[in-house]
TrEMBL record:
This is Protocadherin beta-18. Pfam families: Cadherin, Cadherin_2, Cadherin_C_2. The chain crosses the membrane at residues 689-712. It is a single-pass membrane protein. It is found in: Membrane. The gene is PCDHB18. InterPro entries: Cadherin-like_dom (IPR002126), Cadherin-like_sf (IPR015919), Cadherin_C (IPR032455), Cadherin_CS (IPR020894), Cadherin_N (IPR013164), Protocadherin/Cadherin-CA (IPR050174). Its main location: membrane. It comes from the Eukaryota.
Length: 788
């Protein structure tokens, strides 16, 4: 950039050199041209060929060009025809500012030979600018006491155009206060002035606005406006005035301290310090001064001391408002003290009875109290009540006395205490109320008997228990309280006079625990029942009873007892079997019983030992001893069988039976010498004795069976004819071997027909079906004996 400036500087120096050097060659005539501003680039201005008398061919040959004094290329010379054309758009205001004639001087330079021609370019003004004020808003402050005719000078508008295109006139918007006056300045310009035509009153119109318009002389004319804001300044020409001369207020006597009583307000039409007001009391009494205070700025009157309607019913307060110019206004405040309901009712309890028994009669007096209210009128009238849904009510008695009485019977077991709230409400506005709480306890009366948790109890005891064993408990509750709820347990006399209850069980009188006093035997006593009593300790005492049923559970404490053949250590019983017997021949039957019950009495039979194994067999379920194969001559004549009888208890118990079997050719053979017998005469005599005893036993059994069969038939017929009962004689078995539950091998519930079977050549027992079955064997029907 610096080399470019240096070159331009050198070019100007060279041109100036030629200008001064060839001053004598400059044409003495100055050519004048004109052009309007803002014309487009390339606009035709003039033709130098016609004006300067040169040929068109010389323009290019002599290097003709245009040079302005400020060296700016405003014009350019067209060498083809000699026309001067605008090289850039011209702005007169930028070139000459406010100079009315804007002339730009330039020279037309010719070389070879060197020749200069002077010329000037007049830039004509056009109305392209609008008059403008320096400020869009003009603030004009005028006192409301200003005299009429006073002039107020306003800044003139500016217009960049000149001549007739400049500002030519001013106008003001219509208003009753001012008119516009134009003056000429030394520069020949016009400036406006406002002239006051009518007095100003700030209290009526504190401020207003005027529109000032400046118009130029162009065609069409242009105009500009500004807003004149006139502010009327105040003078103290108005005294303060209150809204009303007397303020009347009603203040409740219960108003708290520092509460707002009233707010007074005065107005002053003046402004500024002339309109600033200060409030104060004026000529007030000592009571007013100590009771009220006023805020000097806001005019709010506050309560300084408590009010009492009974002492002073009203106050008169004189107040004043003073402005900044010492002008003042006065008013009064009439304060009426209003009586309010500021005393709540009072309750004084005279008597109270607590607790009261639950069997109290209706309208029993529980409490007596009085009520009062220090207020008067409706504020002193009271209403007394208690809550609903309680068995009590209030009864008025004398003046303000009330009695709290029961309304209906009480039940401590449902509710043992009542929280009663006595509410006293006055009829004032607002209503005040007082509540008094009473806790009333209900004492117990023995009106509930003990109640067992169950009407009957079933206890299970395993036999052979240890004495003083805890076998169970009974429990009874009493809804009463205290000693009325203390329950004592006892055993009631049994209904069965033969039941030794006192030696069987005992009960703990305090907790109802039952204990077995002795070891129980299922085979002797399977179940018994008794009654238990529960008695409270009230007066009179109340009691109840429950049934207790004790079931003795069987234990496997009895071994099987073999009924046949007898195992009493006497002469053994010998069973005779013909050698011609077929396989499966019934030799005899082992009959056994078990004093236990259930599965403890389920018996099974097993052959433990035999003289010749494989010859005889025992059926496991019924104890029948049968031949297992055909007999031969080689088989020994005398056999000894050992049969095991075992129950199904846990642990199992067992017994053994020994059988003697003698193989004979027939029952007519009285004696068959045994292979292992000695030929001694003593042994033959013993065998004869045994045979005679056996025959006598068989004959006795047969006779007994026939008698028993006849008796059973007769009993069955008499039972069918009458009530169906039968008196069956007891069997020859001992009582302690009888299964009472009916689940043993041989029980009292089963009566058998027994006979001695003949014709087969052997003596055997035939066990027929039971005559009076009363239990079905558990597990379905009894399994039939399979073929041997």
């Amino acid at each position: 950039m610096e080399p470019a400036k240096a070159r331009a500087q050198r070019t100007r120096q060279v041109l100036l050199f030629f200008v001064f050097l060839g001053g004598s060659l400059v044409c003495s005539k100055t050519w004048s041209y004109s052009v309007a501003e803002e014309m487009e680039v390339g606009t035709f201005v003039a033709n130098v060929v016609k004006d300067m008398g040169v040929d068109v061919e010389d323009l290019a040959a002599r290097g003709a060009r245009v040079i302005f004094d400020d060296y700016k290329p405003y014009l350019r010379l067209d060498p083809r025809n000699g026309d001067l054309l605008l090289n850039e758009q011209l702005d007169r205001e930028a070139l000459c500012d406010l100079t009315e004639r804007c002339i730009l001087h330039f020279q037309v330079l010719f070389e070879n030979p060197l020749q200069f021609s002077r010329a000037e370019l007049l830039v004509k003004d056009i109305n392209d600018h609008t008059p403008t004020f320096l400020e869009n808003h003009i603030l004009l402050k005028i006192s409301e006491g200003t005299t009429l005719g006073t002039l107020f000078q306003i800044d003139s508008a500016q217009d960049l155009d000149v001549g007739k295109n400049g500002v030519q006139n001013y106008t003001i918007s219509p208003n009753p206060h001012f008119h516009l006056k134009l003056r000429d300045s030394d520069e020949g310009r016009k400036y406006p002035e406002l002239v006051l035509d009518q007095s100003l009153d700030r209290e009526k119109e504190a401020e207003f606005s005027l529109t000032l318009t400046a118009v130029d002389g162009g065609s069409p004319p242009r105009s500009g406006t500004t807003l004149i804001h006139v502010v009327v300044l105040d003078i103290n020409d108005n005294a303060p005035e209150f809204e009303k001369p007397v303020y009347e207020v009603h203040v409740p006597e219960s108003s708290p301290l520092d509460s707002l009583i009233v707010k007074v307000s005065a107005t002053d039409l003046d402004a500024g310090i002339n309109g600033e007001l200060s409030y104060s009391f004026s000529h007030i009494s000592r009571d007013v001064r100590k009771t009220f205070e006023i805020h000097p700025i806001s005019g709010e009157v506050y309560l300084k001391a408590p009010l009492d309607f009974e002492i002073i019913q009203s106050y008169i307060i004189n107040i004043q408002a003073i402005d900044g110019g010492s002008l003042f206004g006065k008013a009064s405040i009439l304060v009426q003290v209003v009586d309010v309901n500021d005393n709540p009712p009072e309750i004084a309890m005279t008597s109270l009875t607590s607790p009261i028994p639950e069997n109290s009669s209706p309208e029993m007096v529980v409490a007596v109290f009085s009520i009062r209210d220090q207020d008067a009128g409706d504020n002193g009238r009271m209403v007394c009540s208690i809550q609903d849904n309680i068995p009590f009510l209030l009864k008025p008695t004398f003046k303000n006395f009330y009695a709290l009485v029961t309304e209906r019977p009480l039940d401590r077991e449902i509710r043992n205490e009542y929280n009663i709230t006595i509410t006293v409400t006055d009829l004032g506005i607002p209503r005040l109320k007082t509540e008094y709480n009473i806790t009333l306890l209900i004492s117990d009366v023995n009106d509930n008997a003990p109640a067992f948790t169950q009407t009957s109890y079933t206890l299970f005891v395993l036999e052979n228990n240890s004495p003083t064993l805890h076998i169970g408990s009974v429990s009874a509750t009493d809804r009463d309280s205290g000693t009325n709820a203390q329950v004592t347990y006892s055993l009631l006399p049994p209904q069965d006079p033969h039941l030794p209850l006192a030696s069987l069980v005992s009960i703990n009188a305090d907790n109802g625990h039952l204990f077995a006093l002795q070891s129980l035997d299922y085979e002797a006593l399977q179940a018994f029942e008794f009654r238990v009593g529960a008695t409270d300790r009230g007066s009179p005492a109340l009691s109840s009873e429950a049934l207790v049923r004790v079931l003795v559970l069987d234990a496997n404490d009895n071994s099987p007892f073999v009924l046949y053949p007898l195992q009493n250590g006497s002469a053994p019983c010998t069973e005779l079997v013909p050698r011609a017997a077929e396989p499966g021949y019934l030799v005899t039957k082992v009959v056994a019983v078990d004093g236990d019950s259930g599965q403890n009495a389920w018996l099974s039979f097993q052959l433990l030992k035999a003289t010749e194994p494989g010859l005889f067999g025992v059926w496991a379920h019924n104890g029948e001893v049968r031949t297992a194969r055909l007999l031969s001559e080689r088989d020994a004549a005398k056999h000894r069988l050992l049969v095991l009888v075992k129950d199904n208890g846990e642990p199992p118990r067992s017994a053994t039976a020994t059988l003697h079997v003698l193989l004979v050719d027939g029952f007519s053979q009285p004696y068959l010498p045994l292979p292992d017998a000695a030929p001694a005469q003593a042994q033959a005599d013993s065998l004869t004795v045994y045979l005679v005893v056996a025959l006598a036993s068989v004959s006795s059994l047969f006779l007994f069976s026939v008698l028993l069969f006849v008796a059973v038939r007769l009993c069955r017929r008499s039972r069918e004819a009458s009530v169906g009962g039968c008196s069956v004689p007891d069997g020859p078995f001992p009582g302690h071997l009888v299964d009472v539950s009916g689940t043993g091998t041989l029980s009292q519930s089963y009566q058998y027909e027994v006979c001695l079977a003949g014709g087969s050549g052997t003596n055997e027992f035939k066990f027929l079906k039971p005559i009076i079955p009363n239990l079905v064997p558990r597990g379905g029907e009894m399994e039939k004996a399979p073929p041997f």
